[in-house]
Every structure is written in C-alpha cells, then in structure tokens.
Specification:
single chain, alpha+beta, Tetrahydropterin Synthase, Chain A, 4-stranded antiparallel beta sheet, elongated
Length: about 325
C-alpha cells in the first residue's frame, strides 16, 4: 500500500470516530424524549404500538412510553354539533322541519379510535343516527304533540327524551360515544304550509284573547257591582250616623236652650227678639206691623207702668228691652 493510500485512510477513520459518538448521543436523546409525554386534563391518551392499542391513559400528568410507541390524543370534553335541518312526516301525514342540537362525549376511547378515529367522522356518523331516530320517533306521534298551543296535548319533552335515549343506546355500543342530549331547537312547517299554519295560529290566539277579554269584562262588572254595593252600605251607615249625631246635637241644644230659658226667661226672650230683628231687618227691607206687635214692643224706650193696685211698695214697672239689657249688665258686674 502506498503512502498516499495510507494518508487518505487516516482522515476517514478520524471522521468516523468523531461522528459515531455524536450519532449515539442524538439517538439516546431522542429515545429519552420519546419515552415521556404530558397529558392534559381534557384529553385521553391512547398508547399504540405498531397500530395496536397498548393502554389507555386517562389521568393528566407526565407518563412514560416505549420509544417505538405512538400516543393518540382524544378530547374527553363534552362536544356539540348541529345536524343538518330535515323534514319528517308525522303519523297524521304532516311534514315538519326539525333543527336539532346534539351534545356528546367519548365514553370508550379504544372503541372510538377503532370505529371513528376523529371527531369530524364521529359527528358525521352521529348526525345520521340522530336524524334517523328523529324520523322514527316523530312518525309515531301526531303533529299536535309537537306544535300544539294546548299544554294538555303538547308533549315535546317526551319526544326529545325518546330520541336522545335511542340515539345514545346505539352510539354507545357501536362507536363508544355517550350521547348526552338531543335538543330540538326549532320545529317549523314547510314553506308551502307555513302561511296556512300561521293563519290558524293567529285565529287560535285571537279566540283565546277574546275569551280572556270576556272573562275580564265579567270580572270587572262583578268588582264594580261589589264596589257600588259597598258604597251604598257605607253611605247608609254614614247617613244614619250623621242623623244620630245631629239628633243628639239638637237634643243637647234644646237642653241648653231650656236651661238658659229657665235661668232668665226675659233675657232669653230679649235675645231671641234681637236675633229675629237681625234676620228680618236690613237696609233694603220695609215691614209694616201693628204698633202693639210683640216684635215692635222692644223698640219702645219709655217705661210702661205696671198694673194698678194697692201695694206697700212703689208701683211696679215693666222694663223694655233696653232696660232688661241694662239690668243684665249690672248683674254681670
């Protein structure tokens, strides 16, 4: 072997000695990194080896695997989707459109991976299952069960519960999926029948409104009649009480007048005469009366002699109105 050949082999051996440790280190690092994976709380971890599921990891945290294993992550949260709207025939031969909402989650990750593998595929299969179950259930009920305004005839919740139960039974065994609920968001008539249905609904509502108004008018008349009756009773009680109080007041006034009249009859007569003058006489009234009228007697300011007859004392004198008033003032003093 020539010297040139030996010189060429030496650098090649040196390169191999330097590359081999680096390659071993890279492979070791890759094996260490590939042997661990972190799992989130919202995920399932399916460890597969050459396409076969080795184990299912449901607990979150850091887990170890073989470097040759592969980890498939599946969502464990509750998911939802809206199947396409479709029309179905009821038992009374009426078409109804249904818009639904499905909520679901993965119950058996291993079966789900084998049957569907992805959430998009699962939604397509579940959509077919739910629509088929809606059609089967609605075909056993009349349309009034779903769209009637009468609460006694409407049983919408029972229909939705039956659809959810039938879909859940099939999806759990076939796909490893737990159907949480199937909600019917909207039930509507077809475009051709919609106007007729709306008119019928308006007529029913108008009938109900008329009945409510009639009942309200009857109730209003009853309340007004009761109020009028109560008003008459209160007025009667108030009038009777007023008459009683007035009678008691008149009796008290009569007793007061009688007591005053008994104390000084002449003074009482004088006051009554003055009140009569106050009512009868003013600057626009002219009255012609005889001179000996009792009303005019008080206007005579001269003293009138009393009846004649022997008496040890001086003859008695009858005082007129001014004298009575003067005497009364003297008594008060």
């Amino acid at each position: 072997m020539t010297e040139q050949s030996i010189a060429a082999i030496k650098p090649s051996n040196l390169l191999r000695r330097r590359t081999l440790p680096a390659l071993v280190a890279v492979l070791t690092l890759w094996a260490v990194v590939s042997s661990f994976f972190a799992l989130d709380v919202t995920e399932y971890g399916l460890v597969t080896r050459f396409g076969r599921v080795v184990r299912v990891v449901a607990e979150p945290g850091l887990h170890g695997v073989s470097p040759f294993d592969r980890v498939v992550r599946l969502d464990k949260r509750i998911l939802f989707f809206r199947p396409a709207a479709a029309e179905f025939l009821t038992i009374d031969k009426k078409n109804l459109g249904v818009d639904s909402l499905v909520t679901w989650r993965i119950a058996d990750p291993e079966r789900f991976l084998a049957a569907l593998a992805t959430a998009a595929t699962a939604e397509l299969r579940l959509s077919d299952v739910v629509l088929a179950e809606i059609g089967a259930v609605m075909g056993r009920y009349p349309a009034s069960v779903l769209i009637s305004t009468d609460p006694a005839k409407r049983n919408y919740q029972a229909v939705a519960s039956e659809v959810a139960r039938r879909a859940a039974d099939f999806a759990r065994t076939a796909y490893g999926i737990d159907v949480v609920s199937v909600d019917v968001r909207r039930i509507y008539p077809p475009e051709l029948n919609r106007e007729h249905v709306f008119e019928r609904m308006k007529a029913e509502r108008a009938k109900i409104a008329k009945e409510n108004r009639s009942a309200g008018e009857v109730e209003a008349k009853r309340i007004i009649a009761e109020a009028d009756h109560e008003k008459i009773r209160i007025d009667s009680d108030a009038a009777g009480q007023a008459e009683r109080i007035k009678a008691e007041a008149d009796a008290e006034a009569s007793r007061t007048y009688a007591a005053a009249f008994g104390q000084d009859s002449r003074f009482y007569q004088f006051l009554r005469t003055l009140r009569a003058y106050d009512k009868l006489l003013d600057d626009k009234t002219t009255i012609f009366l005889p001179a000996d009228t009792d009303v005019l007697r008080m206007l005579h300011f001269d003293k009138q002699p009393g009846p004649l007859g022997p008496s040890p004392a001086a003859p008695a004198e009858v005082s007129t109105g001014p004298d009575v008033l003067h005497n009364k003032k003297e008594e008060v003093r």
